[in-house]
Amino acid sequence: FATMHKRLVDLLPETRDRLAKIRRGHGNKVLGPITVEQIIGGMRGIKGLLTQTSRLDAFKGIKFRGLSLPECQIRLPSVRREPIPEAMFYLLITGEVPSNDEAEDLKKDIAERAQTFPNYVEKIVNSLSKDLHPMSQLSIGVLALQNESEFAQAIRRGEKRGNLWQSALEDSLNLISRIPKLAAMIYVNKYRDGKLGEIRENADLSENFCRMMGYHDEKFWELMRLYLTIHCDHEGGNVSAHTTHLVGSALSDPYLSYSAGLNGLAGPLHGLANQECLRFILGMKEAIGESPSEIDIEKYLKDTLAKGFVIPGYGHAVLRVTDPRFVCQMEFAQRYMPNDVLCKLVASLYKVAPRVLKDLGKVSNPYPNVDAHSGALLTHFGMTEYDFYTVLFGVSRAIGVCASFVWSRALALPIIRPASVTMENLEEFVRKT
Ligand code: NMX
Ligand code: MLT
User: Fold this and answer.
1) Which GO terms describe its molecular function (predicted)?
2) Tag placement on the chain: N or C end, fewer CB within 10 Å?
3) CA distance between the termini of the chain
4) What domains does the chain contain, in order, with CATH numbers?
């Protein structure tokens, strides 16, 4: 990782200077009002976080350091068609597209670090009940790895705040390298014979992750590459990134912070929606068959809504169009598995669900999000264990939140402590206005 580290060292003074200038010259400028609705309604639209790695546009979707998903697919070093996760981390950290050599350097470093997995963490993970949800196992595993934190040691020895990004980067690289093995251990323990596949020194993170879980089809590695790229970052306000950033602002190390982020990712309105989505598609197939009519689908959706359930994989707090991450997955399905039954059901649902959700009159975004497609693709390659799916999301999201963590420490951002109001405060405000 020497080249990425050097680039970061070069970028630091100028980036710190840019922020200092904004703060000094414009610190008291007003960016926007805050409405009472925003306070009650989950702070939608309030710009209150500084996140360098990516930015979400309601109509265009995510841009990673200014690059859209299709641009990342074209420009980042890749194997077959999809970018390698290491190249994405390089981009998020430096803001620059790595050369093949730079990506290769990072890939080797990550593969090497993956070989050194602490024994005591293996024992802890192996001792967990198979009934425990894979996301709880993942969060416990990341917490157990915290014993390795160089960041925590740097804090203990009183390292200057401005230097903490160095140990944050070390921890981040270790976390990103080891989280696939942790996830694979959870997978083989819960669903297979407990034996991990071997990893290769010259393989990328995606291939090694799949090998450890026992998947040897190159197309599955490619799907995993796509998966790890599209889920890695979604600006700063989503629950997992926001939580990691919040906990990190207390100078908790990357392991403590990301374990907390994972607990948010495990919620059904956030990352768990991917498992719920496949469960929903399978339920629909069971109830109305493999190739239902649009009328059948509409009725099934309306019945689901009438029972008080949401349609998983649809809607978004920020996006107001079909998620480009859904589109990438649909293209993958059309390219490699045009006749897959579940992928066809996902496509049929896409024709009907937006109309049904629009008719409810209250849904801000009736279009599919990232979670609406992933389960059908994974199932095609034999990964049918849907309660594991959010773990894959977690492996990917580590890439984005760790890159942000490094920058938050590099820019010495302070502890996050917004103010809250009581209902009495709001009533008083309302009376006066
Ligand atoms: N199915 C049914 N109702 C919905 C849906 C949906 N897919 N999406 C929104 N609504 C409802 C929502 O429950 C709320 O109802 P009420 O006022 O009765 O509480 C109303 O529409 C307004 O909510 P929105 O402003 O549209 O959505 P919000 O920004 O609050 O929440 C989500 C965004 C993503 C939480 C919401 O759309 C949802 O619950 N979707 C289904 C779960 C899902 O797919 N989550 C994954 C998000 C992506 N990720 O990976 O994290
Ligand atoms: C994400 O990827 O984090 C989800 O789309 C949720 C969000 O952005 O709020």
Assistant:
1) acyltransferase activity, acyl groups converted into alkyl on transfer
2) C
3) 57
4) 2-22+52-269+398-410 (1.10.580.10), 273-386 (1.10.230.10)
Q: Which candidate, 269, 332, 423, places its Cα nearest to that of 70? A: 332
Taking Cα atoms as reference points, which of 117, 130, 123 lies closest to residue 189? 130
pTM of model > 0.95: yes
SS3 367: coil
State the pairing for strand pair 61-64/54-57: antiparallel
Atom of ligand 1 nearest to the CA of 270: 51
What is the distance between the alpha carbons of residues 346 and 335, in angstroms, rounded to a whole number? Answer: 15
Residue identified by tokens 């045009």 is 338
Cα-to-centroid distance, 333 and ligand 2 (Å): 22
Which residue among 62, 265, 322, 370 is best mutated to probe the pocket of ligand 2, counting the most ligand atoms within 8 A of its Cβ? 370
Alpha-carbon distance 366 to 184, whole Å? Answer: 34
Q: Rounded to whole angstroms, what are the CA distances from 382 to 373, 386, 394?
A: 15, 11, 20
- State the greatest distance between any 2 C-alpha atoms of the chain, in Å, as a whole number: 67
**What was the pLDDT predicted at 2?**
86
Q: Is the pLDDT of residue 265 over 90?
A: yes
Out of 57, 230, 234, 320, mutate this one to test ligand 2's pocket (max ligand atoms within 8 Å of CB): namely 234
**Would you call 371 a catalytic residue per the annotation?**
yes
Q: How confident is the model over 163-191, as pLDDT tens digits?
A: 999 999 999 999 999 999 999 999 999 99
